[in-house]
Amino acid sequence: MVFALVIASAAWLGVPTAHADYGAYGECTTGFALPGFDATEVAPQDKTTEYRYPGLDVGLEEVEEPSKDELDDLKNEGLPGGTENHMLIAWRNHIAKRTSAGGKPMAFGRWKANYITVIKNRRVGPAFEDFLWNELWKLTDSGSAGWIKGSKIDPGILPNGPVFDITNVDNKIPKRLWTIVEAKSGDSLSSHARNQFKEHVKMAGQTGSSLVMMFGKLPSPATQRWIKRTLDQLRNDNAAMPTAVCVKYWPTKAVPEDPGGPGGPGGAASLPLPLGDAPDSPEDEAVRDEIEVALDQPANPTQQPAPPAPAQQPKPAPIEVQAGPAPAPQLQPAQPPMPRQQPAPQQRPMPAPAVPAPAAPQAPAAPPPPIVVPVPAPVPVPVPAAPIPVPVPVPVPVPVPVPVPAAPAPVAPAPAAPAPAVPAPQQAPLAPAAPAIGYGGIDFSTLELRYVTDTVAGKPAMQYAFRASATSDDAPSYGGQRNAQMAMDAFYVWMALSPDKFWVNLNPTEPDRVIDQEFGKTQAGQVLLEADLEMKEVSGRLQRDDTPLGKRFEDALRGTDKCFLGRRQWIEPTPATVREDGDQLYIIDAPLTVKLGLENSDISPNQSCDGQDPAITAENGKLYQDMIMPAVVEAINHDPEFADLRRVYASRIAAEWYRKRNADKPTQYADVIDSGNVAAWTVPWNSREVFDRYVYSYTHAKPTFSWKTQEGDRTWTRGRSWGGVDFSKIELKDVGEQEFKTKYASIATAAGPSIVGPVEQQSGDQIWIGDIITSVPLNQIWPQQPTSWTPYEIPHPATSKPYFYLLVTLPVAAWLATGGVLWWRRRKAGNGG
Q: What is the pTM of this model?
């Protein structure tokens, strides 16, 4: 019997590679090919497909922190996960667990954001399985091909096996075609998923099946390396191995069924994976694990757990705003700085592009710059470690942009998959989705917005991509969500406010001219002011005589008092290197510099070098300019303490490009540009508190170095500076087509394509992570053609077909009829003869 199969042969259909980077081997789908791309190839951007998942309950993000009495009144009634009461009971469990261990609970707003992320992940996973089953592979139309979803394999083949996502392992199917498909909606594997993968490898080996890992994004390089190491380890341990292993993917974008809910165009816009879901710290990761447990059993620490009941998915409903913690209290002037808590990672709204509107008025011209002497180019110098990190804000409630309708594409959630080797209930609960482990292979501290588009395929949409440094190992990296959200928020702030507001100033005599009122409500404004203060601290640390540079500087200073005058110094941009290619902008380099004012008016308040020859004072000032300033510039551009400043500045470049394009032709963000409305991107912080820390440092400066003279020991307190950060004017320098192709071609092959998943730049030292923000459904931007393939069909025995008996009896009947006629004729002839 010949088993026929039609195989799709289009160029975009991924074909497994025999020796791929992830350790693939064998032919995973002998005789047929499940549509998808191999993990070693980058899919075309226009193959990105949208699918829907059930949204969250009404008001879940609006829930405020309950009082102790309110928590005590909560009753455990086996509520399904994702409801307000279940969330609060889980919060009560968290408090009890932390308190009993002698610790402190996580801030409620931060804990709630983790809870919502876990709930969303539990709904996205089954929706992705449904997308594969119903839309991409259309297995519902496969007839008798033997494919099953969310079910166990026949116990006669695999006793006590788990529920598998998709498989065709069945005695009715030739064993050479047996395949187990494990579906993962993202581009990485959580700790739970990694353990599951190991078990599925063994079970595929036990049954003699092939194993196909099917992702919803291009698996990250670190994930592929982990899969290869794991396969090698299992093989070395003599584990039963599958007949073949392949890793495939289809580029997708998960969108909630309710566009007004979290993640929808009208709510907190999703960030590209892993940035939207990866934990920002090990503590967040541990809390998500804790929430997973709370979702799988009653969350009441005072009662014994009851047998778990199948969780029902709540009805999707719109969510309008996010709750956040209260603003931090203001510190009193001239007090030592107090340690401040790290930010709570939480997403805030990104407005979807709107239909082009009339151009907004341009910002007024910034005041002329002060007279300065250019600072020498930075040179490599030793820089002391461990400076004070730049604090960043905690998000607060923000208004939600008007939701943009999207084409409905409801998807029924698939049955869940419990952990391996654990029998599944008849009705599976909401699928567990353990929190992602710290994302490996990417240094998220370096993440910046480095690619944007004005349109996508002529439609009102913005494709964008972040660039981050790759790491030499796959150690966990945290902070991706926090840093990506900061970059996107800054992008909108830079468009919404006029450029003349983009400055900060720290001068002990000007407490009322620290920052513009509206800019002072944003995280971008806070980053600039904190960076200004940190610059002054770095300058002081570089002068210390317990550092090589500081010692050389001290030895070079002249005069009995080694005095020089502190002056105004400020950070400003130098020309950014970019490439504008049609409706695309590539940000290649975004350097910053530090300027030093040399006018008498630039001398710091209340400072002088009385008794010292003015010529020596001037010469010492020149030594500071030549020796210390280049090291300060080096720190601004490379030290981790200024990573946030570099991050928001890269977004400033992208926003400036949009602003200039809007002046010629209204863009989809015309209603945002120069609107003056930053309500959606405000954070709770207090600029006066930063000013007070600066004043305390200015008036209580510690000695920088000491030396001996004939008159005795002397000490020098660093030259105290004032100044700020000025981003009011920036310049973009386009490298041109030829230079871009010659020097930076690898950027073009990574930035835009990263919408399908993390793409490693050809050099291997950078990784790009992209996404799209659109006010229209993706299928209107990139219409999808149905995938053409025919799964293996089980041959039916002839006796099972109705016409079998007709075909068998017709010859017999004809023979009998013929024989009867002949007999009748012979009998008649005999009688007549």
A: 0.76
Q: What is the rounded CA–CA span in Å between residue 374 and residue 729?
A: 17
**What CA–CA distance (Å, rounded) separates 299 from 292?**
11
Q: Which residues pair with 723 in a beta bridge?
A: 506, 569
Measured between alpha carbons, how far is 404 from 776 in angstroms, rounded to an integer?
A: 8
Output DSSP code: residue 13.
S
Model confidence pLDDT, tens digit, residues 518-563: 999 999 999 999 999 999 889 888 888 888 998 898 888 888 777 8
Q: Is the peptide bond before 274 cis (omega within 30 degrees of 0)?
A: yes
From 242, 160, 232, select the one nearest 205 (Cα to Cα).
242
Element (H, E) at 181: strand 179-184
Contact partners, residue 296, CB within 8 Å, separation at least 6: 308, 429, 432
Q: How far apart are CA 117 and CA 378, in angstroms?
A: 44
The mean pLDDT of the chain is 76
CB 94 within 8 A of CB 108: no
pLDDT over 60 (residue 226): yes
Average pLDDT rounded to a whole number, residues 651-671? 93
Of 521, 63, 683, 106, residue with least CA distance to 322: 63
Distances (CA, A) of 711 to 513, 704, 715: 43, 19, 12
pLDDT digit string (tens) for 400-439?
333 333 333 333 333 333 333 333 323 333 333 333 444 6
- Cβ distance 500 to 363 under 8 Å? yes
- Euclidean distance between CA atoms 111 and 439, whole angstroms: 20
Q: Bridge-partner residues for 506, per DSSP? A: 723
Enter the tokens of residue 158.
Answer: 């695999």
Structure tokens at 470: 């790759």
Q: Cβ distance 34 to 165 under 8 Å?
A: no
The candidate with the shortest Cα–Cα distance to 195, out of 152, 160, 156, 162, is 162
Average pLDDT of 158-175?
93
Q: Starting from the edge strand earliest in sequence, which strands make up the sheet with 179-184, in order?
A: 37-38, 244-249, 210-215, 179-184, 164-167, 148-151
- CA-nearest of 698, 702, 389 to 546 is 702
Using DSSP bridges, classify how beta strands 584-589 and 442-453 pair: parallel, antiparallel or unpaired. Answer: antiparallel
Question: What is the full DSSP assignment across 338-379?
Answer: PP-PPPPP-----PPP----PPPPPPPPPPPPPPEEPPPPP-
Single-letter amino acid, residue 781:
I
Tell me the C-alpha distance between 550 and 540, whole Å: 9
- Phi–psi pair at 824, nearest 5 degrees: -65, -40
What is d(CA 655, CA 732) in angstroms, rounded to the nearest whole number?
12
In DSSP terms, 477 is beta-bridged to 439
Asked whether the beta carbons of 677 and 513 are under 8 A apart, the reply is no
664 class by beta-carbon count within 10 Å (0-12 exposed, 13-18 middle, 19+ buried):
exposed
Cα distance between residue 630 and residue 653, in whole Å: 24
**pLDDT computed for residue 626 by the predictor:** 93
Q: Which one, of 138, 133, 136, 160, lies nearest residue 149 by Cα?
A: 133
What is the enclosing helix (H) or strand (E) of 503?
Answer: strand 503-506
One-character DSSP codes across 440-501: ESEEEEEEEEEEEES-BTTBSEEEEEEEEEEPSS--EE--HHHHHHHHHHHHHHHHHS-GGG
> Do the beta carbons of residue 217 and residue 223 sit within 8 Å?
no
